[in-house]
């Protein structure tokens, strides 16, 4: 009987939606809070937006670097074909 219950709990864990704010709440010290005051909510929102901005800037830098590399390869191929 216990085996079936554990299996059901494991299945529920696998299908549980991820908590995207968990790491932010933990970093700000709110991981045990069930409700947050307005100021705490604003702090969590601001941290989430900052984190998103950082990730987007990092991705943009990676994309730009790859684009520059591809443009350089294209220019080298063009020059080698014409000279």
The average pLDDT is 87
The main β sheet shows up as: none
Which structural class do the helices and strands define?
mainly alpha
The count of DSSP E runs of length 2 or more, i.e. the number of strands, is: 0
Outline type: elongated
Put simply, the count of helices is 3
Beta-strand fraction estimate: under 5%
How many structurally independent domains?
A: 1
N-to-C order of helices and strands: HHH
Q: Give the helix level as a range of percent.
A: over 70%
Poorly predicted tracts of residues: none
**Alpha carbon gap, first and last residue:** 78 Å
Give the C-alpha Rg.
Answer: 24 Å
Q: Could you explain how this protein is built, in words?
A:
With 83 residues, the chain is mainly α. It has one domain (2-82). Helices cover 77% and strands 0% of the residues. The protein has helices at residues 2-14, 22-27, 38-82. The longest helix has 45 residues, at 38-82. The radius of gyration is 24 Å and the shape is elongated. The mean pLDDT is 87.
Question: Could you provide a short overview of the structure?
Answer:
The protein is built from 3 helices and no strands. The chain is mostly helical. The model has no long low-confidence stretch (mean pLDDT 87).
Features:
elongated; 83 residues; mainly alpha; 3 helices; single chain
